[in-house]
Amino acid sequence: MIVTTARLAMLTLILALGVVAPAVAQPAGTLVVGLVAEPVNLDPAQVTDLNSNRVGRRIAETLVTFPEESTRIVPGLAESWVVSKDGRRYTFKLRKGVSFHDGTPLDAEAVKFSIDRQINPEHPFNKLGKYPFANFFFGNIKAVEVVDPLTVEFVLKEPRASFLAVLTAGAASIVSPTAVRKYGQDYALTPVGTGPFKYVSWERGQRVVLERNPSYWRFPLKLDRVIYRPIVEDQARLTELLTGALDLIVGTPPDYVGQLEANPKVTLLKQVGAHVWYLGINNQRKPFDDKRVRQALNYAVNKDAIVRDVLKGTGSLSVGPVLPKTWGADGGLKPYPYDPERARKLLTEAGYPGGFTTTLWVPESGSGMQSPVAMSTVIQSNLKAVGVNVSLQTMEWGAYLAKLRSKDQELFALSWMAGNEDPDMVMYPLLHSSQWTPNGPNRALYKNEKFDEILHQARLTTDEKKRADLYRQAQRILVDDPPWIFIDHEIQTAAHAKRVQGFKLHPSFDLRVETISLR
Amino acid sequence: MRRYLARRLLLLVPVLAGVSIVIFMVLHLSPGDPVEIMLGSQATQEDRARLRGDLGLDQPLHVQYVRWLGHVVRGDLGRSLWMKRPVLAEVLGRFKATLILTGTALVLSTVVGIALGVASASRPHSVLDRTSTVASLFGASMPAFWLGIVLMVVFALHLGWLPASGMYAPYGGGDLRDLLAHLVLPAVTLAAASVTIVARLTRAAMLETLSQDYIRTARAKGVVERRVVLRHGLKNALIPIVTVIGVQAGYLLGGAVLTETVFAWPGVGTLMVQGILARDFPLVQGCVLVVALSFVLVNLAVDLLYAWLDPRIRYE
């Protein structure tokens, strides 16, 4: 009996191994990308997550865009533009001879259609989507006017110097009106744009397939197809890369960085992104309403240790919300040094010689949150060392977001991806007092009148030099009167097989695979 | 028998209604708001109010439930809030993958579990028995996410024998061979705990049966040992084994959530996790209904099996 069972088991094992297929040879022009999660929706106007954006931006494009390695603004589907003196009218000249993948020509009507469907409740296609950016990005648009087939004008309600940066957002992508009319609600599943790749198919939970756009206006492509596979588990994504089943992965967890750097089979890339991770402080609550307390907290936290030991180098220290080395950044500012002695002194001056007790809310994970629990645990122990007893409350992301609307927060971990380097796009929403939650994302309930005024002034002028001066003043205010504990800007990582050539990470967190050729 | 079957099938209706009410309440009472998650943190109050109205989430709970139920009885599970796709097509498309995975794991745990159990019971305290006891303890204690990753590192990364994740190769492949190769690791991971439970239970049931008088009689009559163990022993020990296998079927459907996530298996489990994180009410309800339905049907099948195994059991 036992012998038979054992024999049977052996036989089954041999049979099982017999069916095991050796890895199929990789087709020459096909790139396989491993995503951290499945895209949700490929209608650019509805995308709020990084993975949908990374795929969707291959399909649809914007009027203005970024060059290869920075987030400065350059022409995209619009070849030139004029801004009126009062800063209220932006007139774009569209590129001639560009067509959508379905053959519809790109014209001013298509631009108007793409934006109008989001902002005009009467638009026949307004009810088909959730349009999360209708107010945040486009609330200031009074009208989109067709001047002639290749000229389109945006009329603003009030001047907004960052408007060009707004138009680089995925939500401002120009979509084929023919396709939206044809597919209706299902456009999100069958997107049509002007981009380097055309949508081919989407097998749920398995892969999204794109194919080269042979008449792409910008440059001829070297890839034939791109396949995106959602693989949530880090180890699985890594294994697939190392065994050659994937060519490129993004979002390598910090713990794997060293392993990948040492592996001769793959190349690891790093690039600081337009992102900020901060420990929010409720500025309206005692004892945090005293700026000395907020300064003390900044001195108390050892950011170097967090970046080095928790993030394994995948973060760059932050002095504030603005990304260092961009046009609006103040290069003279230094991050708060780690100085617990100074922190204790400031707390004593503020009337808390024995420290105090408070609560820190932390999401378990979330878009752009890096390693929230581990980072917060270090912060907790740093603060304990200066007498501030913090109890950590971890929450699931959805529950966390809901809780942050309550205004009951004391300390909270959060991050922001602006997607571009315009200081207005990170400072205004996060710190202007008109943006207090629940109406906007200023969850620290920060209010500094001088700062508010400077940000307002900077929106009115389109002169970049003047704006840069104003933003530098604003950053100095933030260092003196800190709204948060400043932590880091994420250094995004990607790893690819050696056969992948010509790939660069982009600071906007986009994944520009169109530049890739395969060896 | 036919009346019994009809009655059991009719009972499905209140069971599923109960499940749907419970899951509806749990989802709506748990913290987190789909609109918040769908729109992101930059959205204004106005955007949120508009979307909430568009989705009907501003209605009282009972109104939302009745409206949902109204659609369900017409065979329409609604559209996913988040992905905008029809829930029924989405869930059924994924359910096929889950059935393949749990079905394989169930067969695996039944065959291996019973074989191990019978072998242990026929030579109690032998090396094989002791080894299987230790292996059982190990299998039952290993969480799927740990075992899965270990198997992946060994068989995919180091040995390179099997693919690490997914259901088919991203290109080429797509045939049965490809599917089987992708199925091995997740199916073994999923089956591990069940194998041990089935093995332990089979051993216990067999030991009890084998100590019965009629077994001694059979042996005394000179029946060959193999026949004693299989025909006289196993068949009479099967009732509790079938029961536990039925329970395991439900456990495997639930456990598939973890295994599917680890191996990027495109089943209902991964879909349900996405749905829960996004508070996608219609999607989660759809997934739970399908899983609950299959669980109930498996239980019914087990009850019917009893009658077949033991002719003394009759349903009227």
Structure characterization notes:
The complex is a heterodimer of chains A (519) and B (316). By secondary structure, chain A is an alpha+beta fold. In chain A, 30% of the residues lie in helices and 22% in strands. Chain A is built from 15 helices and 20 strands. Chain A has helices at residues 2-19, 50-59, 108-119, 163-166, 177-183, 234-242, 254-262, 291-300, 303-310, 340-349, 372-385, 397-403, 424-431, 449-460, 464-480, and strands spanning 30-35, 64-65, 74-75, 78-83, 89-94, 141-148, 151-156, 197-203, 207-212, 225-230, 248-250, 266-272, 275-281, 315-317, 356-363, 388-395, 411-417, 484-497, 500-501, 517-518. In chain A, helix 13 runs antiparallel to helix 14. With 316 residues, chain B is mostly helical. Chain B contains 12 helices and no strands. Chain B has helices at 2-29, 34-39, 45-55, 61-73, 87-122, 127-141, 144-158, 176-210, 213-221, 225-262, 268-277, 281-309. In chain B, helix 5 packs across helix 8, helix 6 (127-141) crosses helix 8 (176-210) and helix 7 packs across helix 10. Chain B is globular.
Question: Concise description?
Answer:
The complex is a heterodimer of chains A (519) and B (316). With 519 residues, chain A is of the alpha+beta class. Chain A has helices spanning 2-19, 50-59, 108-119, 163-166, 177-183, 234-242, 254-262, 291-300, 303-310, 340-349, 372-385, 397-403, 424-431, 449-460, 464-480; strands at residues 30-35, 64-65, 74-75, 78-83, 89-94, 141-148, 151-156, 197-203, 207-212, 225-230, 248-250, 266-272, 275-281, 315-317, 356-363, 388-395, 411-417, 484-497, 500-501, 517-518.
